[in-house]
Amino acid sequence: WSPVGASVEGAQKISIPAPSMTLGADGQPFVAFAAESKPTNTLSLTDIYVRRFDGSSWKDVGASLSAVTGPGIFGYDQSGVACSAIAIDAANNPVVVWQELTEAQQTTYAYYVRRYNPSTALWEAIGANGGKLPDTAYNACSVLSLKLDSLGRPVVAYSAFSGLLVKRFDGTNWVGLGPDDGNLGRLDFQGFNFALNAADNPVLIGNEQNGFAVVKRFNSVSSLWENVGPDAGKLRAAGLMLATPKLVLDAAGNPLVAGTVRVPYGSGVTSSDITAFRFNGTDWQELGARALNYGVDVGQLATVAFDQDANPVMAYIGSTGDNYGLYVKRFNGSSWLGVATSAGKVGVSAIGSLTLGVNAGKLVLAFQGIYANASGFSASVSVIRYP
After folding, report:
1. Hey, CA dihedral for 385, 18, 254, 148, is it positive or negative?
2. Residue-wise pLDDT tens digits, 206-248
3. What is the DSSP letter of 264?
4. Residue 236 DSSP code
5. How far apart, in whole angstroms, are the C-alpha atoms of residue 255 and residue 280?
6. Does residue 84 sit in helix, strand or coil?
7. Helix (H) or strand (E) holding 237
8. b/e map of 267-299 (b: 16 or more CB within 10 Å)?
9. 93-113 burial code (b ≥16 CB/10 A, e <16)
10. What Å distances lie between residue 373 and 18, 182, 258, 377, 380, CA to CA?
């Protein structure tokens, strides 16, 4: 594994990142992350930054993103952004959705979507009201998921007061997918993620409140969400919730999911496992043995992709106490084998927000790292590549 360039975050940015990543048409990564800049002791600005690796160095893509201005908490002029997600259109231009505080009291978060226009070097709103999505949320860093369909239209899934919302931009408005204007209720508990199939319909994994992970597919003919697999789409083999899940589709449109097996609240269990499941067209099959992960509850703990030979590859954070380790493994049909080393351990410190991409036989992994400094520890944005 080797770093992709230096200084992913750029100069003079104190990162609180929760980064997201995608690969451009040339295989080079784009990243979006939150960063806080403090030029004085009385001013605190937090924006979304988008950067692209051009083959030799990281470059800013337009100006940083923020839709709301202060006054903010403690009298600061603070644009309180949180999580983001990024996708790339057919012209290799990024589209970003992010979450941001809407008011001085900083108790409500809104979501905004914008596309970069290289001819004007500006971020342009997708939809009315500055690209603001319907409804708001009360949780910072709620999980976001963004994909572009074959026509370049964004599809987003996001957590709001009313429930988990899934919407597509039709060129004028954000239109809900399915009944109740795309509201899937409280399915978002403990995380969700989706991918688009060949018909441009989302296949989504979420969690029932205090229940099992479930997978659903949108049917654009009936305008209904259908369960993927028996038993109402539940991954009962996991036994518990699959927190912070990731989902990708194989060439046949069948989903592969990875995440952290979590226990219901109040169970008293403090450990968790990293695992992956694949749908074979009829039922769900767990792939290989689980990786033990003790008591960690930060960011995206696992992510998954298919390599150039259609083999599942999973990156995850395993830990013992405060010792976090980043691992990457490839499934050979019966077991998970380490990538680059026999154990698959990557010699870097990571604490969450994993995103895995594949291009031309190379694996590209972005994550929220951590490093020591004079004041203790700081988060960072890291992107590495193998081989």
Report:
1. negative
2. 877 666 788 999 999 999 999 999 988 888 665 556 777 899 9
3. P
4. G
5. 8
6. strand
7. none
8. eeeeebbbbbbbbeeeebeebbebbebeebeeb
9. bbbbbbbbbbeeeeeebbbbb
10. 19, 45, 33, 6, 12
Do the Cβ atoms of 123 and 62 come closer than 8 Å?
yes
Cβ neighbour number for residue 11 with a 10 Å cutoff: 5
Q: Give me the count of residues in the chain.
A: 387
CB 103 within 8 A of CB 127: no
Beta-bridge partner residues of 124: 115
242-260 b/e (C-beta count within 10 Å ≥ 16 → b): bbbbbbbbeeebbbbbbbb
Work out the number of other CB atoms within 10 angstroms of the CB of residue 141.
16
Q: At a CB cut-off of 8 Å and minimum separation 6, what does 162 contact?
A: 135, 183
DSSP three-state, residue 103: coil
Q: What is the largest CA-CA distance in the chain?
A: 59
- Write down the pTM of the prediction: 0.91
Closest-CA residue to 247 (of 196, 175, 193, 179): 193
Going by the DSSP 8-state scheme, the letter that residue 233 receives in this structure is G
Q: What's the CA gap between 347 and 366, in Å, rounded?
A: 14
Residues 175-207 pLDDT 10s: 999 999 999 987 655 578 999 999 999 999 987
CB 277 within 8 A of CB 235: yes
Tell me if 272 sits within 8 A of 260, measured CB to CB: yes
Give CA–CA dist 103/97, Å, rounded. Answer: 19
Listed residue (168, 165, 203, 155) closest to 187, CA to CA:
165
pLDDT band at 68, cuts 50/70/90?
A: confident
Alpha helices in 109-246 (DSSP H): 128-131, 179-182
How far, in Å, CA of 96 to CA of 90, rounded? 15
Contacts of 372 (CB under 8 A, 6+ apart): none
Q: Which residue has the tokens 């033990």?
A: 292
DSSP state of 183: B
- For residue 148, give the 3-state DSSP assignment: strand
> CA–CA separation, 317 vs 298, rounded Å?
10
From CA 24, how far away is CA 72, in angstroms rounded? Answer: 36
